[in-house]
Design goal:
The protein contains 10 helices and 9 strands. The protein has a 6-stranded parallel sheet, sandwiched between helices. The chain has a 3-stranded parallel sheet with strand order 1-2-3, sandwiched between helices. Strand 2, helix 2 and strand 3 form a beta-alpha-beta unit.
Length: 283
């Protein structure tokens, strides 16, 4: 048996040969029963038409003597294709026959607000323009900033330290970092978005691809996050973050949303995945 994550061509190779169970984020595990993939952005044109992709795939299948596809979502196993996210963070939620089954881990504990929490923890890419300047601006305004920047040069690291930023050279445990911060600033990674949401921590998201744009928009819709685009200056970005850090209404909404997620939404899906594995191995 093959268990795969975001590997549609591996799943295609397994069809009619090996049992295959596919798991992944909602974005990377679209519904397999549809005739075509739904558009996630109506204001943009696809890079390739689905028919072009199907023709290319079928040319390969034909050369192997394998059955050809009539629709592109058939790349995935229809019965065992599982989105391991909570439904509010699933871009295909409205199109699924069954909702996303939830992450493969327990929801982290809700963090109660206390006086020791201040400023923000930022987990960002040091290569993105304006981020260093925005963090320096925040530190200059007296905001407590703790950060881990990927792809951060030594020069930038030293500048941040000199400005009073608690700049880390190695990644640190997110739950530990958020115990000290009022706000979590990041690019919208699906799993850290889940963690901060379940912990009741307000977020600031600077999305860098379509999946992260969806996560940022979903959080903004819930009223628990600020979504920053690349259009503003670093001062405008910094001021918006400062306002967000100080916003008690957003903090209260984040805590309320966390309780709702714990009580009604989050389910550890590990046992469901293992049950399907056992069934398929016995079939």
């Amino acid at each position: 048996m093959v268990i795969s994550d975001y590997a549609p061509f591996l799943s295609l190779t397994c069809q009619q040969r090996l049992p295959n169970l596919m798991i992944g984020t909602g974005f990377c595990t679209p519904p397999a029963h549809l005739d075509e993939y739904p558009r996630l952005q109506n204001n943009t044109q696809p890079y390739l038409r689905e028919r072009q992709v199907i023709n290319t795939v079928n040319a390969l299948l034909h050369s192997k003597g394998w059955p050809e596809l009539t629709r592109l979502p058939a790349l995935q196993p229809q019965e065992d294709s599982h989105a391991i996210v909570i439904p509010p963070l699933d871009p295909y939620h409205q199109f699924r026959e069954e909702p996303a089954i939830g992450p493969l881990f327990n929801a982290p504990n809700i963090l109660p607000r206390n006086a020791q929490q201040s400023g923000l923890f930022a987990y960002l890419s040091g290569a993105r323009g304006g981020i260093k300047e925005a963090l320096l601006f925040l530190a200059g305004q007296g905001v407590r900033v703790e950060t881990y920047l990927r792809d951060c040069s030594e020069e930038t690291h030293q500048q941040l330290l000199k400005a009073g930023v608690h700049a880390r050279r190695q990644p640190i445990n997110l739950a530990e970092a958020l115990q000290r911060a009022r706000v979590y600033m990041h690019h919208g990674n699906t799993w850290s978005t889940h963690e901060a949401l379940a912990m009741g921590v307000p977020q600031v998201v600077m999305p860098i691809d379509m999946e992260k744009q969806h996560n940022a928009a979903a959080l903004k819709h819930m009223g628990v996050s600020l979504m920053l685009t690349s259009g503003g200056t670093y001062r405008e970005m910094g001021q918006a973050v400062m306002d967000h850090v100080a916003d008690n209404t957003v903090a209260e909404k984040a805590l309320q949303r966390a309780h709702t997620i714990h009580d009604r939404i989050w389910q550890n899906s590990t046992h469901r995945v293992l049950e399907r594995v056992e069934i398929r191995l016995k079939s």
